[in-house]
Design goal:
By secondary structure, this protein is an all-alpha fold. The protein contains seven helices and no strands. It has one domain: Four Helix Bundle (Hemerythrin (Met), subunit A). The two termini are about 15 Å apart. The mean pLDDT is about 95.
Length: about 170
């Protein structure tokens, strides 16, 4: 039986997630609730990325919603909020774990598809592969923003560069 490796972009998303977690290591609940305008709070950022993963990898392809009110709380364009950090990490962990089963099904052919509704109407004008890249870049954007907030809060010994790439090294696509 052949063991299929995840698509390279899925591996990159998982690495991006791990770097995001590394960037937020040891952030207290109090510090995560600080909002240094115009930036959002760190707790909001954790929930915001969970919300994107829920929308992209649970709602659109699987019609699954694990956290129904998440978009109202941390969605793009919604009023600023400072949700509890522990709740946002719990949502993030559950959503990303649930997303992984879908992500493991992706291959180069599926990356070229669009999410469609029951009538085959395209839901968003980006392919699944482009959405995956958008999700990856979104993590890096918010990791940098969160590290900036942490610097402004006086946190020391923060990550200074991308971590161990051996878990996300390049390999040719199928």
């Amino acid at each position: 039986m052949e063991v299929r490796m995840p698509h390279l972009l899925v591996t990159q998303l998982r690495f991006s997630r791990s770097e995001f977690v590394r960037a937020l290591e040891d952030v207290s609940a109090d510090d995560a609730a600080v909002r240094l305008c115009p930036m959002n709070s760190i707790s909001w950022t954790v929930g915001h990325l969970a919300n994107q993963e829920q929308r992209y990898w649970l709602i659109r392809p699987q019609n699954r919603v694990l956290y129904p009110g998440l978009n109202d709380l941390v969605g793009y364009g919604k009023p600023a909020s400072t949700p509890p950090l522990a709740e946002m990490w719990a949502a993030w962990r559950e959503i990303t774990a649930a997303a992984d089963s879908y992500l493991d099904t992706l291959n180069p052919d599926k990356m070229l598809l669009y999410f469609v509704d029951a009538n085959q109407k395209v839901l968003i004008q980006e392919t699944i592969g482009t959405l995956l890249m958008r999700n990856i870049y979104h993590y890096w954007y918010h990791a940098g923003e969160a590290l900036a907030v942490r610097q402004m809060l006086g946190h020391a010994s923060l990550p200074e560069f991308v971590g161990d790439m051996s878990r996300a090294a390049y390999y040719p696509e199928e």
